[in-house]
Design goal:
A seven-stranded parallel sheet has the order 3-2-1-4-5-6-11, sandwiched between helices. The radius of gyration is 19 Å and the shape is globular. The protein is built from twelve helices and 13 strands. Helix 3 packs parallel to helix 4. This is NAD dependent epimerase/dehydratase. Belongs to the NAD(P)-dependent epimerase/dehydratase family.
Length: 337
């Protein structure tokens, strides 16, 4: 690695992080992955086995200390490590604040001590809450649940380290990322995992509400190129929204997959539409999404067998899994009638 620029990728065995590793190796970087494998999967990096430009280290980011040698000589740090999902964050807020906020602070301190060239933070569009669309970077912040709050506070720490310590940083605010290697197990959540398992089982898709709600789906390789652009630019201290800028409805996803549907109740705290205004990143960094939704979904379908052991959700099990969601985010909790 000595003659190559070095990049550190936290959460590098995860969904987006592993694609970031792919891109960095392709672009001539030496890569050091930090991942405790609680949410990632070592198999995501298996195709790089034996590559001398990649080293992988099983570490919980909460145990990192300034002076950690993995950050020495690093040109960039890409910080993806953290925990997601709405319902678990409602049930375990301490874990989310500990990992997503305090863990981020530890990464920042390691980056600061090593005098890295740029740290790029993976922010979440959930910080905007029930946002006006298209959503710009200066939209008011309104987290609806602890996960969203924790990701926003992590981002605030990133910008604070830039302001106080001069650490060069940028933040990339991801809307609805999808693509190969997306998680196949765990809590009820990501629509692709739910639908793919139902398709394999010949069961109807559990569509929330009437299915007209839309999401700004952005393919994972486009996410990776956005992060690299945010690292390699001379611009610092900025948040960049990334999406495809072309929301697609859940009904459209169903039409691409093919099959019957059954409807489950619409959930509080979820927007009818997510829609990233990507003017800032396209004009300042020259980044543009390249993979259309109609291309990305078939790419995932080629690997649908990976979901054969994923949880099979139906209306009853979804009702049980989202009980906490309705309890804390429903009308009684928000004061709405």
């Amino acid at each position: 690695m000595s003659d190559k620029p070095i990049a550190v990728v936290t959460g590098g065995a995860g969904f987006i992080g592993s694609h970031m590793v792919d891109l960095l190796l392709e672009r001539g970087y030496g890569v050091r992955v930090i991942d405790d494998l609680s949410g990632g999967h070592a198999a995501n990096l298996a195709h790089h086995a034996g590559n001398p430009d990649l080293s992988s280290h099983r570490i919980d980011i909460r145990s990192l200390e300034p002076g950690n040698t993995l950050f020495e000589g690093a040109r960039h740090v890409f910080h993806f490590a953290g925990i997601g999902d709405i319902v678990p964050s409602i049930e375990r807020p301490l874990d989310y604040m500990d990992i997503n906020v305090q863990g981020t602070v530890r990464v920042l301190e390691c980056a600061r001590a090593a005098k890295v060239g740029k740290l790029v933070y993976a922010a979440s569009s959930s910080c905007y809450g029930l946002a006006a669309t298209p959503t710009r970077e200066d939209h008011p912040i309104d987290p609806q649940y602890p996960y969203a709050l924790s990701k926003y506070q992590g981002e605030q720490a990133v910008f604070h380290w830039h302001r106080v310590y001069g650490l060069p940083v940028n933040s990339v605010c991801i809307f609805n990322a999808y693509g190969t290697r997306v998680r196949t197990t765990g809590a009820y959540g990501a629509v692709f995992g739910v639908f793919f398992r139902q398709k394999l089982a010949g069961k109807p898709y559990t569509v929330v509400g009437d299915g007209t709600q839309s999401r700004d789906f952005i393919y994972v390789t486009d996410v990776a190129t956005a992060f690299l652009a945010a690292a390699e630019t001379e611009v610092v201290g900025e948040r960049f929204n990334i999406g495809a800028g072309n929301p697609k409805s859940i009904n459209h996803l169903v039409s691409l997959l093919g099959g019957d549907v059954v409807h489950v109740p619409k959930r509080p705290g979820e927007p009818d539409c997510t829609y990233a205004d990507i003017t800032k990143i396209t004009t300042m960094l020259g980044w543009h999404p390249e993979v259309a939704f109609e291309q990305g979904v078939p790419r995932m379908m080629q690997q649908i067998h990976l979901w054969k052991d994923a949880p099979l959700w139906d209306p009853e099990s979804i009702a049980g899994a989202t009980k906490t969601w309705f309890e804390y985010l429903g009308p009684r909790a928000t004061g709405e009638a």
